UniProtKB/TrEMBL annotation:
Keywords per UniProt: Glycoprotein, Membrane, Signal, Transmembrane, Transmembrane helix
Protein's UniProt name: Transmembrane protein 161A
Domain of life: Eukaryota
Family: Belongs to the TMEM161 family.
Transmembrane helix keyword on record: yes
CC annotations in GO: membrane
Residue intervals passing through the bilayer: 135-155, 167-186, 225-244, 265-285, 367-392, 462-489
Membrane topology according to the record: Multi-pass membrane protein
PANTHER family on file: RE42071P (PTHR13624), TRANSMEMBRANE PROTEIN 161A (PTHR13624:SF4)
Record's subcellular location: Membrane
Signal peptide: 1-28
């Protein structure tokens, strides 16, 4: 414990528990296999023949030899077909597409939340300002793993033979690039991300740090314009990743509201959940959010409703509460998606003509096969906003209680000794091999501490405040763009 620290011990323990408990206890598996979700089973050919009023055709070997294979069974589209329901169980979920990726990511997010809560309690009890915050590392890793999973899903769209999905991703990518370039030129008086102070802090500390390492003639070759262009490219990439999750959210939202038409409280919560990214956007618009609360107009004078530090804490709390609300409403969106099978059957009954029985079975089965894909598309944007906010709180030196955080300054780069000792005190006895092992462990810990100290001297809280505030806001903005377009598409273009 003394060598590694309490945070690292808890982090390694959480990773070990996650690996060993995944086959037995998994929140991701419970989320879709707790018996509250119902899937629709496809009808057999015998059932379709009975509904069509004819007997099941028997296989004819002579026809198979002459024609190569039997003709597909067709039934009228207007048959009185009702799909049977069955609860989603573990055996059904194991064969779903991308189920392993879904289970690993969601479970990792759960354990990352646990590590973050521990580090918050640890920092509130112990003065560990010089230690590396392990909880922040878990939060950043969750964001990166979420983006990687979305990239895997998008690469699946690009590898398909149909080019429609590829065109949608590219279109939203170019639209996101344009919007990001417009947003990045807005002054801090309107969008208070803190990118300008963050970039200034980064450049100043990087130049001081490099000169301390002996490179006196070295200057920072990267300008703010280059940083903003690179950030705009990253925004375009994130926008293309969040295109289909937003479109899917729009569809499941409309279906979930219709499914709960007799439950007004659930409808209100569903609308609040759908509008939550817009609330996140407004929280960073300074004239609407901070200025209104800090300098609320009352006639010719203005009053302060909440202080600046209280507003920062309140903003973090609101975003976390909205993310938790969306997680609670996951089941309603997933059930609305699974109901697409019955919805398609009802639509088929209104059409004329005949349809192959295998097409009915494929259509009903395909909806359930993509359940975990839809779950990932629903949950990953929530995880991105949630863990970006948690990383903003930790790395930006914010606090959950107003007035507790300190204003981050431009921290100068730390001065490192030229020959830092690997061990604080050299062991005098050299009797057993355990002493050498302890020296190696201490040397490794010392080198890691030096690396993280160097990183913290360049990447200050002022920089992290600007970066993660912009990342949180941008993920919400991408979801607003794609989901509102999805509402317009499903409400008007589909019925036109």
């Amino acid at each position: 414990m003394a060598l590694m620290g309490a945070q690292l011990v808890v982090s390694l323990l959480a990773a070990s528990i996650m690996q060993r408990m995944a086959p037995h206890c998994s929140f991701a598996r419970w989320l879709i296999c707790n018996g509250s979700l119902f899937r629709f089973k496809h009808p057999s050919e015998g059932e379709l023949c009975a509904l069509a009023g004819k007997q099941m055709p028997k296989p004819n070997r002579r026809d198979r030899r002459q024609n190569g294979e039997n003709k597909p069974l067709t039934v009228p589209k207007d048959i009185d077909l009702h799909l049977d329901k069955a609860p989603v169980n573990v055996m059904d979920a194991l064969v779903l597409r991308f189920f392993l990726e879904y289970q690993w990511l969601v479970d990792f997010a759960v354990y990352a939340t646990g590590v973050f809560i521990f580090t918050e309690c640890y920092y509130s009890v112990v003065d560990a300002s010089k230690e590396v915050n392990i909880g922040a590392i878990w939060c950043v890793l969750t964001v990166l793993f979420g983006l990687k999973t979305l990239h895997t899903l998008m690469s699946h769209y690009f590898s398909s033979e149909e080019g429609g999905e590829r065109s949608v991703c590219l279109a939203f990518g170019f639209l996101s690039l344009l919007v990001a370039m417009l947003v990045l030129v807005v002054r801090e008086d309107y969008l208070e991300f803190g990118l300008e102070p963050g970039f200034n802090s980064l450049f100043n500390n990087l130049e001081v740090f490099v000169k301390q390492q002996g490179y006196s003639d070295w200057s920072v070759p990267v300008t703010k314009l280059t940083m903003k262009l690179g950030l705009a490219a990253v925004c375009a990439y994130i926008g293309s990743l969040l295109a289909f999750p937003g479109l899917r959210l729009a569809q499941t939202h409309l279906d979930a509201v219709q499914m709960n038409s007799d439950r007004p409280i659930i409808q209100i919560l569903l609308h609040m959940s759908f509008m939550s990214p817009i609330i996140v956007l407004i929280l960073w618009v300074k004239p609407i959010a901070r200025d209104f609360l800090a300098n609320a107009p009352m006639g010719k004078t203005s009053i302060t409703i909440v202080s600046s530090s209280a507003f920062d804490s309140m903003r973090l709390g609101i975003i976390v509460a909205l993310c938790l609300l969306r997680v609670v409403l996951t089941r309603y969106h997933l059930q609305a998606y699974l109901n697409l099978s019955q919805k398609w059957v009802e639509q088929m009954k209104k059409e004329a003509g005949r349809i192959a029985a295998i097409d009915i079975q494929r259509k009903v089965t395909r909806v359930f096969c993509y359940l975990t894909v839809v779950t990932l598309q629903y949950l990953i944007p929530i995880l991105l906003i949630l863990f970006s906010t948690l990383a903003l709180k930790t790395l930006g030196d914010f606090s959950w209680t107003p007035g507790a955080e300190q204003a981050p300054g431009v921290t100068p780069a730390l001065v490192f000794p030229t020959a830092a000792p690997a061990v604080s005190g050299v062991l005098e006895e050299d009797e057993e091999g355990v002493d050498y092992m302890e020296e190696d462990i201490q040397a490794t810990v010392s080198r890691l501490s030096e690396s993280f100290s160097a990183l913290r001297s360049v990447l200050t809280p002022l920089f992290f405040r600007g970066f993660f505030a912009f990342l949180t806001w941008w993920v919400a903005a991408c979801q607003v763009l794609s989901s509102l377009f999805g509402i317009y598409f499903h409400q008007y273009l589909m019925h036109s």
